[in-house]
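task queued by scheduler; priority normal; single chain, no ligands, no partner chains; default sampling; output format set to C-alpha coordinates
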Amino acid sequence: MRKIIRSLTNFWNEDRSLTVLMLLLMLFIFVFVPVMGKGRIGEIIFKIIYSIILITGIFSVLKRKSYLPVAIVFIIIGLSINWFSEIETTNATQIANNIGAILFNLFFAFAILIKTFQPGDITFHRIEGSVVVYLLLGLVFAYSFHVIYLVYGITAFNNIQGPDFKDFLYFSFTSLTTMGYGDITPVHSIARSVANFEAVIGQLYPAILIARLVSMEFESSIRKKQL
Protein backbone atom coordinates (compact mmCIF):
# COMPACT_ATOMS: atom_id res chain seq x y z
CA MET A 1 0.00 0.00 0.00
CA ARG A 2 2.83 2.38 0.89
CA LYS A 3 4.50 1.64 -2.45
CA ILE A 4 1.29 2.49 -4.31
CA ILE A 5 0.91 5.78 -2.39
CA ARG A 6 4.59 6.60 -2.99
CA SER A 7 4.25 5.84 -6.72
CA LEU A 8 1.12 8.00 -6.96
CA THR A 9 2.81 10.82 -5.05
CA ASN A 10 5.87 10.70 -7.30
CA PHE A 11 3.74 10.66 -10.43
CA TRP A 12 1.50 13.59 -9.40
CA ASN A 13 4.58 15.66 -8.61
CA GLU A 14 6.07 15.16 -12.06
CA ASP A 15 5.37 17.51 -14.98
CA ARG A 16 3.64 14.75 -16.94
CA SER A 17 0.89 14.63 -14.30
CA LEU A 18 -0.23 18.04 -15.60
CA THR A 19 -1.18 16.36 -18.89
CA VAL A 20 -3.29 13.78 -17.05
CA LEU A 21 -4.96 16.52 -15.00
CA MET A 22 -5.80 18.41 -18.17
CA LEU A 23 -7.36 15.31 -19.75
CA LEU A 24 -9.34 14.55 -16.57
CA LEU A 25 -10.73 18.07 -16.42
CA MET A 26 -11.56 18.11 -20.13
CA LEU A 27 -13.45 14.82 -19.78
CA PHE A 28 -15.28 16.15 -16.71
CA ILE A 29 -16.21 19.51 -18.27
CA PHE A 30 -16.87 18.58 -21.90
CA VAL A 31 -18.05 14.96 -21.67
CA PHE A 32 -19.31 13.82 -18.25
CA VAL A 33 -21.23 16.93 -17.19
CA PRO A 34 -22.99 17.60 -20.55
CA VAL A 35 -24.05 13.99 -21.21
CA MET A 36 -25.03 13.18 -17.64
CA GLY A 37 -28.70 12.64 -16.97
CA LYS A 38 -30.71 14.86 -14.64
CA GLY A 39 -31.82 11.94 -12.47
CA ARG A 40 -30.42 10.75 -9.17
CA ILE A 41 -27.99 8.31 -10.79
CA GLY A 42 -26.52 11.09 -12.94
CA GLU A 43 -26.07 13.30 -9.87
CA ILE A 44 -24.32 10.51 -7.96
CA ILE A 45 -21.96 9.83 -10.89
CA PHE A 46 -21.25 13.57 -11.07
CA LYS A 47 -20.37 13.64 -7.36
CA ILE A 48 -18.14 10.55 -7.65
CA ILE A 49 -16.16 12.06 -10.53
CA TYR A 50 -15.88 15.39 -8.72
CA SER A 51 -14.66 13.56 -5.59
CA ILE A 52 -11.93 11.86 -7.65
CA ILE A 53 -10.80 15.27 -8.93
CA LEU A 54 -10.72 16.55 -5.33
CA ILE A 55 -8.54 13.61 -4.27
CA THR A 56 -6.11 14.11 -7.19
CA GLY A 57 -5.70 17.66 -5.91
CA ILE A 58 -4.09 16.46 -2.70
CA PHE A 59 -1.60 14.26 -4.56
CA SER A 60 -0.55 17.30 -6.63
CA VAL A 61 0.61 19.20 -3.54
CA LEU A 62 1.89 16.35 -1.34
CA LYS A 63 5.55 17.39 -1.71
CA ARG A 64 4.75 20.98 -0.76
CA LYS A 65 4.40 20.64 2.99
CA SER A 66 3.19 24.23 3.41
CA TYR A 67 0.22 23.58 1.08
CA LEU A 68 -0.68 20.13 2.42
CA PRO A 69 -2.70 21.13 5.54
CA VAL A 70 -4.73 23.66 3.52
CA ALA A 71 -5.35 21.08 0.77
CA ILE A 72 -6.51 18.47 3.30
CA VAL A 73 -8.90 20.95 4.94
CA PHE A 74 -10.38 21.97 1.57
CA ILE A 75 -10.77 18.35 0.47
CA ILE A 76 -12.43 17.24 3.73
CA ILE A 77 -14.83 20.19 3.62
CA GLY A 78 -15.43 19.75 -0.11
CA LEU A 79 -16.15 16.02 0.12
CA SER A 80 -18.36 16.45 3.19
CA ILE A 81 -20.51 19.20 1.69
CA ASN A 82 -20.54 17.49 -1.70
CA TRP A 83 -22.11 14.31 -0.31
CA PHE A 84 -24.20 16.03 2.38
CA SER A 85 -25.89 18.07 -0.35
CA GLU A 86 -26.99 14.73 -1.84
CA ILE A 87 -28.78 13.86 1.40
CA GLU A 88 -30.11 17.33 2.24
CA THR A 89 -30.93 18.95 -1.11
CA THR A 90 -31.81 22.45 0.02
CA ASN A 91 -30.74 25.78 -1.43
CA ALA A 92 -28.49 26.36 1.58
CA THR A 93 -26.58 23.07 1.16
CA GLN A 94 -26.23 23.61 -2.60
CA ILE A 95 -24.89 27.13 -2.05
CA ALA A 96 -22.46 25.80 0.59
CA ASN A 97 -21.37 23.06 -1.84
CA ASN A 98 -20.76 25.62 -4.59
CA ILE A 99 -18.79 27.95 -2.30
CA GLY A 100 -16.67 25.01 -1.15
CA ALA A 101 -16.04 24.08 -4.80
CA ILE A 102 -15.08 27.68 -5.64
CA LEU A 103 -12.56 27.87 -2.78
CA PHE A 104 -11.05 24.46 -3.55
CA ASN A 105 -10.71 25.15 -7.28
CA LEU A 106 -9.09 28.53 -6.59
CA PHE A 107 -6.58 26.88 -4.26
CA PHE A 108 -6.03 24.05 -6.74
CA ALA A 109 -5.46 26.57 -9.57
CA PHE A 110 -2.96 28.49 -7.43
CA ALA A 111 -1.05 25.28 -6.56
CA ILE A 112 -0.92 24.20 -10.22
CA LEU A 113 0.24 27.69 -11.27
CA ILE A 114 3.08 27.54 -8.72
CA LYS A 115 3.98 24.07 -9.99
CA THR A 116 3.95 25.31 -13.58
CA PHE A 117 6.40 28.13 -12.81
CA GLN A 118 8.65 26.20 -10.42
CA PRO A 119 12.42 26.20 -11.18
CA GLY A 120 13.46 24.03 -14.09
CA ASP A 121 12.99 23.76 -17.83
CA ILE A 122 9.65 24.90 -19.21
CA THR A 123 8.23 21.81 -20.89
CA PHE A 124 5.13 21.19 -22.98
CA HIS A 125 3.60 19.55 -19.89
CA ARG A 126 3.89 22.85 -18.02
CA ILE A 127 2.07 24.64 -20.83
CA GLU A 128 -0.68 22.06 -20.38
CA GLY A 129 -0.56 22.95 -16.66
CA SER A 130 -1.48 26.52 -17.55
CA VAL A 131 -4.42 25.12 -19.54
CA VAL A 132 -5.47 23.22 -16.39
CA VAL A 133 -5.61 26.56 -14.53
CA TYR A 134 -7.69 28.05 -17.36
CA LEU A 135 -10.17 25.16 -17.12
CA LEU A 136 -10.31 25.49 -13.33
CA LEU A 137 -11.13 29.19 -13.71
CA GLY A 138 -14.04 28.21 -15.96
CA LEU A 139 -15.26 25.85 -13.24
CA VAL A 140 -14.91 28.56 -10.57
CA PHE A 141 -17.11 30.93 -12.57
CA ALA A 142 -19.62 28.15 -13.33
CA TYR A 143 -20.08 27.53 -9.61
CA SER A 144 -20.27 31.31 -9.05
CA PHE A 145 -23.10 31.64 -11.59
CA HIS A 146 -24.84 28.70 -9.95
CA VAL A 147 -24.67 30.47 -6.58
CA ILE A 148 -26.11 33.65 -8.12
CA TYR A 149 -29.00 31.64 -9.57
CA LEU A 150 -29.70 29.89 -6.27
CA VAL A 151 -29.66 33.20 -4.38
CA TYR A 152 -31.58 35.44 -6.83
CA GLY A 153 -33.73 32.87 -8.59
CA ILE A 154 -34.89 32.34 -12.14
CA THR A 155 -34.81 36.06 -12.99
CA ALA A 156 -30.99 36.19 -12.66
CA PHE A 157 -30.50 34.71 -16.18
CA ASN A 158 -32.47 34.53 -19.40
CA ASN A 159 -33.20 31.05 -20.80
CA ILE A 160 -32.13 29.12 -17.69
CA GLN A 161 -35.21 27.44 -16.26
CA GLY A 162 -33.67 25.31 -13.51
CA PRO A 163 -30.58 24.76 -11.36
CA ASP A 164 -29.03 22.21 -13.73
CA PHE A 165 -25.25 22.73 -13.39
CA LYS A 166 -24.50 21.92 -17.03
CA ASP A 167 -26.26 25.13 -18.14
CA PHE A 168 -24.04 27.25 -15.90
CA LEU A 169 -20.93 25.38 -17.03
CA TYR A 170 -21.88 26.01 -20.65
CA PHE A 171 -22.53 29.71 -19.99
CA SER A 172 -19.26 30.03 -18.05
CA PHE A 173 -17.10 28.72 -20.88
CA THR A 174 -18.92 30.73 -23.56
CA SER A 175 -18.19 33.79 -21.39
CA LEU A 176 -14.58 32.78 -20.67
CA THR A 177 -13.86 32.28 -24.36
CA THR A 178 -16.04 35.31 -25.29
CA MET A 179 -18.03 33.22 -27.77
CA GLY A 180 -21.24 34.95 -26.70
CA TYR A 181 -23.86 32.89 -28.55
CA GLY A 182 -26.61 34.87 -26.85
CA ASP A 183 -28.82 31.89 -25.99
CA ILE A 184 -28.15 32.46 -22.27
CA THR A 185 -27.69 35.99 -20.97
CA PRO A 186 -27.18 37.43 -17.48
CA VAL A 187 -29.95 39.73 -16.25
CA HIS A 188 -29.11 40.48 -12.64
CA SER A 189 -26.44 43.17 -12.19
CA ILE A 190 -24.17 40.86 -10.16
CA ALA A 191 -24.42 38.14 -12.82
CA ARG A 192 -23.52 40.70 -15.50
CA SER A 193 -20.52 41.96 -13.54
CA VAL A 194 -19.22 38.42 -12.94
CA ALA A 195 -19.71 37.54 -16.63
CA ASN A 196 -17.79 40.67 -17.70
CA PHE A 197 -14.99 39.90 -15.24
CA GLU A 198 -14.75 36.34 -16.56
CA ALA A 199 -14.58 37.59 -20.15
CA VAL A 200 -11.70 39.93 -19.26
CA ILE A 201 -9.78 37.11 -17.56
CA GLY A 202 -10.57 34.81 -20.47
CA GLN A 203 -8.84 37.24 -22.86
CA LEU A 204 -5.90 38.33 -20.71
CA TYR A 205 -4.90 34.93 -19.29
CA PRO A 206 -4.07 33.20 -22.63
CA ALA A 207 -2.59 36.38 -24.13
CA ILE A 208 -0.24 37.05 -21.21
CA LEU A 209 0.44 33.90 -19.23
CA ILE A 210 0.03 31.03 -21.71
CA ALA A 211 1.79 33.02 -24.46
CA ARG A 212 4.66 33.72 -22.04
CA LEU A 213 4.98 30.03 -21.18
CA VAL A 214 5.06 29.07 -24.87
CA SER A 215 7.88 31.58 -25.52
CA MET A 216 9.77 30.29 -22.45
CA GLU A 217 9.39 26.70 -23.68
CA PHE A 218 10.69 27.77 -27.10
CA GLU A 219 13.71 29.49 -25.51
CA SER A 220 14.35 26.43 -23.33
CA SER A 221 14.32 24.08 -26.33
CA ILE A 222 16.76 26.34 -28.19
CA ARG A 223 19.17 26.33 -25.22
CA LYS A 224 19.04 22.52 -25.11
CA LYS A 225 19.92 22.29 -28.80
CA GLN A 226 22.89 24.65 -28.32
CA LEU A 227 24.39 22.54 -25.51
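post-processing summary
- Strands lie at 157-158, 185-186.
- The mean pLDDT is 82.
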